[in-house]
Design goal:
The chain has 2 helices and 4 strands; from the N terminus they run E-H-E-H-E-E. The termini are far apart. By secondary structure, the protein is an alpha/beta fold. The protein has a 4-stranded parallel β-sheet with strand order 3-2-1-4, covered by helices on one side.
Length: about 70
C-alpha cells in the first residue's frame, strides 16, 4: 500500500510532530504539502527550508491537488 503513495497532505502541519513527520516523508522522496490555521515561525521556517508548501487555513480546496494520502493532526 505505502509503495503507491506519492503525495501526502498534512492537516495541522505546523505542530512539531506533524512537521517532523512531513519532513521525514519529504526526505524519502514523497511530495508533501500541508495546511494549518496558524502558520508562523519556527515551524513555518522549518517547513520552508525543506521546500514543503504550507497553505493557511482549513478548506476543502486545499486538497485540490488530490494527494494520495491525507494525514489529520489533532
Amino acid at each position: 500500500m505505502f509503495s503507491q503513495i506519492r503525495s501526502v497532505h498534512f492537516v495541522g502541519i505546523c505542530g512539531t510532530a506533524m512537521a517532523s513527520a512531513a519532513a521525514a516523508m519529504r526526505d524519502k522522496g514523497i511530495q508533501v504539502t500541508g495546511s494549518d490555521q496558524n502558520v508562523y515561525p519556527p515551524m513555518s521556517t522549518f517547513l520552508a527550508e525543506r521546500k514543503i508548501e504550507v497553505i493557511s487555513g482549513y478548506a476543502e480546496k486545499n486538497l485540490g491537488h488530490r494527494p494520495d494520502l491525507v494525514v489529520i493532526g489533532g
